[in-house]
Structure formats: C-alpha cells, structure tokens
Design goal:
N-(1-d-carboxylethyl)-l-norvaline Dehydrogenase, domain 2; 14% strand; alpha/beta; homodimer; elongated; Rossmann fold; eight-stranded mixed β-sheet
C-alpha cells in the first residue's frame, strides 16, 4: 500500500518504520517542523519530508493522521487529499464521526474516514514488538475497513473491529489500568524516598503482583493486602502514617473502600 | 541451621522448601490442623508435623513464626521454646517490639526476638525465585541479627537490615504499588466486561506500562494519559461515562487530581 503519515511524533515514527518493514511504501511524512519530519524520513527508503498539507499530488492511498488530539481539527481544516484517499486517525479518544464532521465542514468532496488505532504507549527511545500491539479498526465503508484490517493484520497478530463507543470505553479502562497504576507506582516510590529507602526493594514484589494479575482469570481473584483481609488495625496504622499527606490519605481511603466494596 | 516453622500457609511452605534446598534442617512444622502441617512435611526430608506449641524438646535453634498477623498473639501465649532459641516473625506489619512484648508478658525467660520478612507475595500454586526476594532482617541483638542475615543471604541475593519503622513504610508503599494497582486492574477488567470487550486487548499496553515504569528513573517520568496532558475534554468525557458508577467516578477524579498536582 502507498501511505503518507501526517505527524512526526512517537506514533508516526513507530508506524512508519513498521509500514516499510512490511513492504508498504511510505510516500510523505508531514510535520510543521521540517526537521521533525526529516528525522523520520531519514530512517525510511524513499519517503519525503514535507511541511505542506496539500497532498493533491500525492500517490498515497492512505493518510495516517497521527497528530495530537488537539491538533486534529486544525490539520483537517488545511488538509487537501487526492481523490479516493482514506484518512485514518490514530487517536484513542476521538470518534470516527468527529473526523467525518471535520472533513465535511472543511471540504466539498466526501472523504473516506477511518480509525487506525494501535492500543499501545509508544516512546521514541523504545522499540516495540508491533506483532503484539492490538489494532482497533473502524471505517465508514466496507472497502476502507477491509484495506485497513489487511494492513493491520500484516503488522500485528491482534486486529479488532472496534466502534468509536467501544474505543472510548477501552480508553477509560486503559486510564485505570495504565495511567493510574503508573501514578500509584510513582507515589509508592515517593513514600520510599521520603524515608530514604530504596524503591528497588519493592520491584520484585511489583513484578510478581503484575504477573499474577495478568495470569489470573480476573485480577480480583488475586487481590491481597489489608483492605481485602479486613485488617482494620493495619489500615488505621497506615492512615495515621499518611495523615499529613492529603492526597495519599484520600487515595488510601478511597481505594481501600473500593476494594472492600468489591469483596464484600 | 536447625529451624522449625510455626504456621503452614504460603510463607511457611515456600520458606521451608527454600531452607531445605539450602541444606538447613527443618525440624518441625506446626499447624493447628495436622493435615496442613503434613502437607508441608511430606515435601521435606525429615521434618515432623505437629499441633503442639511446646517445643521445649526441639533441636531447632530458630523458630520462624509464619502465621497470620492476627494469630501471632495467641500463638505466642502458648509457645514454649528451648533455651537460647531465636523467634523470628515474617510479618510486614508487626513491629519487633510487639513480638518482644508478647513474649515477655507470657514467658519468664527472655526470648531472642527477630524479624525475618520476605518482601514478596506468595501463592501455594506458584513457584518463586527465592534468589530474587528481598529479605528484611531485624533483631534485638547482634548475634541473632548476624545469624539471620547469613541465613537470608544463603536464600536470596538481596538482604537488608530494616527497622520496624522502615518496614512499616515499605508496607504502606507496597499497598500503593501492589494492592491498589491490582485493584485498578480489576476495575479496568470490569469496565471492559460491562461493554463485552475483551480485557486481553489491554494486556500488551499494561505490560508495556509496567516495564516502562520499572525501567524509568522515576515512574513519574513516564506518566501518560489525559490528566498529565491536561486534556480536560477527554477527562470530562470519561467522567460523564462513569457518572453512574460512584466508586469509579471518585477514583477517576481523585487519581487525576493527584496526577495533576504532581505534574503541576
């Protein structure tokens, strides 16, 4: 497939490389800053870096819109695509309908819109096994859907058709499972730092906890700790220790309550 | 070393096997239910199962008290130990002082008390690499401390001298890093189940999140998601979606606030 990528962040970088590794042709990489686009094209076979959103002369059949959520509207307002192109955004939060509305409001010709969402967190420094990344596909017509599913199946072993509503729910779940858990790990590290203890002491336990949760039928089945045990004296001791740290105190209370509600 | 283990739960099981693997002699395994003690002794070379807490005739030099926190007081009230024995509990939450007080109040002879705390979550079904388990040692006299450190160093590559206060702080941190994170994973699974989505879709992302957090200088350095981005429209969307789920709504709010406070 001939593909152009709009955006030069982590998602754009990882997808562009993956497309070429799987014998697709990356035509253009767009960024507002040419140097950022060039940082990606320099890794590719014959892609061109561009700061123009006029793709009327492009040979690409698919345009991957991999910019930040807030930049989508502005990019769409300036975007000129060749006839019959598919425009697919990579956002976990924006609906297919939003993209369609934007393209209709700024353009006369109807554009085939789609979602090509890799359910993964990408960092520039870190290689990702794209085969393991679930791809969530959605399109407003069957032919585009089939093309994107085929493209995704070439990159990954896990490809799902996911509606915008389902994608939103997955995103909420991911915030709990990833963003909030990461913050809890940050808070735990802070607690150890304050007492000049090494966070490394906790790492084997954290690793084991996660492996157990992932291997379990349901993470709730392997819940441990004072809340699920109903060990009130330990919980009170912990709350007394946390009494001067409002945020930690509140999180401790509300998470313990939620655990006890669940396991009541 | 000659060791007896009081208790027949997961910690007792894993430690007993580890002691024998490292050429220590396990003399007795105590449980209120003989069958539970026998389940462990059947795995060992010559340990005896017992339901009596009178160890006056025991050859053991070290007694590992691996019962639940709530059972410690009752066991101590009945415990009869041979002269010069060391009694070490394996609890993350109980102080050395508590154990000393209990033993003084129930016994005429002074007992050498200690803590031998493996900072790990143990399940009966799951083998643990004991070499990777950090051991936290504390004792009320140097000779006992040295003996326990030597014993732990034989089992594990990570052995720390940790005071009761430090152990308490580690335990608070572990509640955040392990118990609460596990619960967040359970909540995330519940969100996917309600919408008939597969939790497996999120597993690669969860795995990557944890690997990143563990590899980072500080987990806060790799925080992602709408809260740290200040993406209020996504957060509002999520809160509207969660409005009928009081516990999820509150956790979402308080965790997002805490993330924003941190990264302000």
């Amino acid at each position: 497939m001939k593909i152009s990528v709009i955006g030069a962040g982590n998602v754009a970088w990882h997808l562009s490389i993956a497309f070429e590794n799987h014998h697709h042709q990356v035509c253009e990489i767009y960024s507002r800053q040419l140097s950022k686009a060039k940082a990606i094209t320099s890794m590719l076979y014959q892609a061109e870096a561009t700061t123009s959103l006029d793709f009327s002369e492009s040979k690409a059949e698919l345009f991957i819109l991999a910019v930040s959520d807030d930049a989508i509207a502005e990019v769409c307002s300036k975007l000129v695509l060749p006839e019959n192109a598919i425009l697919a955004h990579t956002s976990g939060t924006r609906s297919l309908n939003e993209l369609q509305q934007l393209m209709v409001s700024y353009h006369d010709l109807p554009i085939r819109c789609a979602v090509f969402y890799p359910l993964m967190t990408f960092s520039i420094q870190k290689r990702i096994q794209m085969k393991e990344v679930p791809f969530c596909i959605e399109a407003d017509e069957e032919m585009a859907e089939n093309q994107l599913v085929k493209l995704a199946q070439g990159l990954s072993k896990t490809v799902y058709l996911i509606s915008s509503q389902e994608r939103k729910v997955l995103h909420v779940a991911a915030v709990f499972a990833c963003n909030f858990t990461n913050h809890l790990l940050a808070l735990a590290k802070e607690i150890t730092i304050e007492e000049e203890l090494e966070f490394d002491l906790l790492k084997p336990l954290i690793k084991e906890t996660f492996q157990k949760a992932m291997a379990a039928e349901h993470p709730a089945d392997v819940q441990t700790g004072p809340a699920v045990r109903g060990d009130n004296s330990t919980m009170n001791n912990h709350l007394i220790y946390l009494k001067d740290r409002t945020d930690l105190f509140e999180i401790y209370e509300i998470m313990s309550e939620s655990i006890q509600q669940w396991h009541a």
